[in-house]
Specification:
Layout lengths: L1 H19 L21 H7 L21 E2 L5 E7 L4 H12 L1 H10 E7 L5 E6 L2 E6 H7 L7 E5 L5 E6 L4 H13 L11 H13 L7
Parallel strand pairs: 1-4, 2-3
Antiparallel strand pairs: 2-6, 4-5, 6-7
Helix pairs in contact: 6-7
Length: about 210
């Protein structure tokens, strides 16, 4: 699983950043600290990252997030969210889910959704294409090439990655992204290049999330 994921994910990370302009919380999960490690240039930060207060309350989403001892799709599409407890954009994402009833219900009932704390190295059993593998959080961070939090991994019903969104994603975009996954428009697309991201971009344009720059 690891070699396959690394080949696919490394090549797709930059495509993701280009399409979404994701927002991070300036946290480097590789070094497990909160030092600045921006993935976008400073002159673009104000345009791409909404200002978020450091006083955002921490909300519990126990009803949404499943126990990470066993990470499995359970016959549904799966989402892995790498985050930290005190990161402002992680807390903002949690608050969005908590306050948006439709998003909350989708993640709770229509998807198998898991939160992994990037700063705590726990053991997990994860299902990938029908096989259960024993890994720790740090290994998953390496496999998915997570360099900022939050980072969202969307998988198919076998646990195989479809695409990755590094950075904070507003509730409206999150809901449209879930619709894209359920639509199956990514089926048959080559996940080793940018085909899935191109399809997602077209879907975003259609739904009014981004503008067509033609």
């Amino acid at each position: 699983m690891r070699k396959t994921y690394i080949k696919v994910l490394t090549g797709l990370l930059f495509a993701t950043l280009f399409l979404f302009g994701g927002c991070n919380e300036n946290t480097s999960v590789k070094t497990i600290n909160h030092q600045s490690n921006n993935v976008v240039k400073k002159d673009k930060v104000k345009k791409q990252i909404p200002q978020v207060s450091n006083t955002i309350p921490t909300v519990s989403l126990d009803g949404v997030f499943k126990d990470t001892a066993l990470v499995t799709p359970k016959g549904k599409y799966m989402i892995l969210i790498f985050e930290t407890a005190n990161g402002p954009y992680c807390k903002k994402l949690r608050l969005d889910i908590h306050n948006n009833k439709k998003l909350y219900n989708e993640l709770e009932n229509q998807f198998s959704t898991y939160s992994l704390n990037a700063l705590k190295n726990k053991r997990h059993k994860i299902e990938h294409e029908g096989k259960i593998m024993d890994v720790d959080t740090k290994t998953l961070i390496d496999i998915y090439n997570v360099t900022s939090v939050p980072t969202l991994i969307f998988t198919d019903k076998s646990g195989k990655s479809i695409f990755i969104v590094p950075g904070y994603m507003p509730a409206k975009q999150f809901l449209v992204t879930l619709d894209f996954v359920k639509s199956g428009l990514w089926l048959g697309k080559n996940r080793k290049n940018t085909d899935v991201y191109k399809a997602l971009k077209k879907f975003y344009i259609k739904k009014g999330i981004i503008k067509d720059k033609k």
